[in-house]
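Please decode residue identities from the backbone states below.
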């Protein structure tokens, strides 16, 4: 990772309270050190784990996003990276509590909205070259059984079929939501806001 990339990631604005008292700069340093020595205050913080997971995936693609041979549209790529970082900041916030239906009487289970956004973002990891940006829920996620649409923005690599990538991303998100939530998902809308030039041989080989 270049110093410019490090400054970009470190510019992410997340309140320390969302990250167990840690800052994004500390999380970047923790990743640089290979998560060693182990820090339980980071490893056991849901907000930290959401941010670390998203930062690791973004860092893996950032060199390609900002490579020199995309100089024809450098501002577009950098704006998209900024948008991804802003979305990671949102993921780290707990947000609303989403209830989980269960068959055990007098048991109240739930998961945070931030954790679900992190779950959706992680779907990009199985579709090479795709980056998930903002994710929103259209509907009352706090009421069990209420219909909810999932709205996702994405960036995709140039040269691949956009409909195919969108379909694969939609199905991966759907599978993850079914496996880990009881949300009544009425639909998943994928909007591609950015098509990136393949900025490095490494990304071309993905």
């Amino acid at each position: 990772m270049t110093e410019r990339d490090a400054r970009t990631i470190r510019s992410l604005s997340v309140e320390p309270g969302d990250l167990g008292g840690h800052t994004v700069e500390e999380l970047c340093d923790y990743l640089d050190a290979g998560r060693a020595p182990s820090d339980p205050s980071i490893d056991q913080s849901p907000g930290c784990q959401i941010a670390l997971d998203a930062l690791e995936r973004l860092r893996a693609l950032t060199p390609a996003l900002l490579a020199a041979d995309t100089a024809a549209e450098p501002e577009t790529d950098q704006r998209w990276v900024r948008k991804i970082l802003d979305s990671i900041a949102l993921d780290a916030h707990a947000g609303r509590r989403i209830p989980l239906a269960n068959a055990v009487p007098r048991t109240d289970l739930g998961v945070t909205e931030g954790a679900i956004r992190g779950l959706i973002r992680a779907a990009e990891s199985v579709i090479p070259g795709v980056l998930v940006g903002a994710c929103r829920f259209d509907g009352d996620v706090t009421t069990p059984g209420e219909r909810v649409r999932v709205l996702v923005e994405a960036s995709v690599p140039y040269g691949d079929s956009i409909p195919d990538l969108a379909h694969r991303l939609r199905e991966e998100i759907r599978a993850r939501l079914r496996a880990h939530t009881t949300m009544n998902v009425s639909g998943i809308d994928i909007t591609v806001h950015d098509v990136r030039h393949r900025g490095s041989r490494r990304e071309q080989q993905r």
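Observation: DSSP finds eight helices and five strands in the chain.
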